[in-house]
Amino acid sequence: MARHQANSLQEFELIRSLEDRFARRAPGLVQGIGDDAAVIETSAQAWWHLTTDLLAEGVHFDLRSAALESVGYRAAMANLSDIAAMGAVPRYLLISLAIPQTMKRPHIHELYRGLMKACRVYDVALIGGDTSASKAGLFLSITLVGTTNAHRALFRHGAKVGDRIYVSGTLGDSLAGLKLLMSDTTPHPLAKQKTTLLRSHRRFLIRRHSHPTARVAEGRWLNEKQLASAAIDLSDGLSGDLRRLCEASRVGAEVELEKLPISPACRAYASAIEVLPIQLALAGGEDYELLFTASPRDCDTIERQARTRGYRMTRIGTIRPHRFGIQMTSDGRTQPMPATSYEHFR
């Protein structure tokens, strides 16, 4: 780890405390925290998958409405969801932090508790990272390493005309939860929802935003059973992530809006703020569900095995030729799907 002075914190003492609390041994790990680089023993029979995310205070999270434990948890899940979309097994985690002067060691430990709480579910080992001072807000850079068998992984570029389009779970919950949290610190114009939304719905949506679930088991199942032709995780919203999959596969898509899986809580929230639930489902990012395509011949197998395993998988459309574009149908009418997903710099 680099030798930057992390404000009033004692950097090397902080690193040792993080190592003592959160580092552990893991299969294949030769050297973890404590050297110039981590060392992992590899196998010729494996493919290694690496993903990284940068999270900036004020852009990806607001500490006025998000606890540090939740920030850490969500940061880990964002990377775990990328690994899930590849059908891979998550293995190792590296975390780099730029820490503002306002933060002390208990704050960093809270952040790490969230990170490692998410990682423990999937037996992921923390193996290194970096620390630095920040003259602005908190910055996190997370790198996650996963593996699959060689020549066995899910990609965005495998969808074919006629394939069916599926999503896991439900859509729009995280966006609804975020708006609820924002309304707690900025009451207008959503204040009325506090009197019209059931407490159970409110708790469910906030939980879906603050503690999402990466679909690692589902991705591994689709990959190992060779049931998906292409896959991507829904981190920026259905309307944008479907476009990315279609661009990589050079195909179009037709989505049936009535089939989009939307939770009762999300529908209740949409009614409370007087918007269509479909708007939240199309635009909502950070649901971290899987969007994947499959050959028609595999649909019965997918749906039967999903029920047996307790996975919620919903068929929402069909892959069309590239010239068809990205279209959505409702009540017998077809129209272009608007690009409403989150995009940096737009």
The beta-strand count equals 13
In which range does the helix fraction lie?
Answer: 25-40%
Structural category:
alpha+beta
Largest sheet: 7 strands, mixed
- Mind telling me the C-alpha Rg? 21 Å
Integer count of domains: 2
Q: Residue ranges: pLDDT <50 for 5 or more in a row?
A: 1-7, 188-195
Question: Which features would summarize this protein structure in a list?
Answer:
alpha+beta; Phosphoribosyl-aminoimidazole Synthetase, Chain A, domain 2; seven-stranded mixed β-sheet; 11 helices; 36% helix; disordered N terminus
Task: Give a quick rundown of the structure.
This protein is α+β, with helices and mostly antiparallel strands and 346 residues long.
What does this protein look like?
With 346 residues, this protein is α+β, with helices and mostly antiparallel strands. It has eleven helices and 13 strands. The strands form three sheets. The chain has a seven-stranded mixed sheet with strand order 8-10-7-11-9-12-13, sandwiched between helices. A four-stranded mixed sheet has the order 3-6-4-5, with helices on one face. Strands 1-2 form a two-stranded antiparallel ribbon.
Question: What's the layout of helices and strands?
Answer:
Layout: H1 11-22, E1 29-31, E2 39-40, E3 46-56, H2 68-85, E4 89-99, H3 105-120, E5 125-133, E6 139-149, E7 164-168, H4 173-185, H5 193-196, H6 199-210, H7 216-224, E8 230-233, H8 238-249, E9 252-256, H9 264-273, H10 277-283, E10 290-294, H11 299-309, E11 313-320, E12 326-330, E13 333-336
Parallel strand pairs: 4-5, 9-12
Antiparallel strand pairs: 1-2, 3-6, 4-6, 7-10, 7-11, 8-10, 9-11, 12-13
Helix pairs in contact: 2-3, 2-7, 4-6, 6-9
